[in-house]
Amino acid sequence: MGYHLIDAADLDQWDDRPTDVRSLSVAAGYDYQDSKLGLRVYELSPGEQSGLSYHYHDEQIEAFYVLNGTLHVETPDEEYVVEADQALFVDPGSPQRAFNPESADGPVRVLAIGAPSVDDAQEYDPSTDA
């Protein structure tokens, strides 16, 4: 058996993304690649996106659970507005870009879940869908 109590406030910036991101799953000892679960906390200031450009995943399911603020997720068909205590699930192959608009009143704090945790993100160019 194994248990891992992690406090996101104790973690350093996870990678070189231009926004604040802390990897809870890596801190618990789960590999970034080929783990069953990836769990990260993002804090996006107005005008910031989650670190990835417009993209989709080949096999990873993503879920964004908003802890505070309002997250915007752009898709080819619509823009989702995800409020605190709401979750948006994104199936594999579904392009999206998660961001906090420049016009936002403050930061948004999001728990991002990816399963499995694989580096399978593919860039998406919305102009090719026209």
Automatic annotation (TrEMBL):
Protein name stated in the entry: Cupin domain protein
Molecular function as annotated in GO: metal ion binding
Keyword Phosphoprotein set for record: no
Record flagged with keyword Transcription regulation: no
Cupin type-2 domain residues: 41-113
Source organism superkingdom: Archaea
This protein's UniProt keywords: Metal-binding
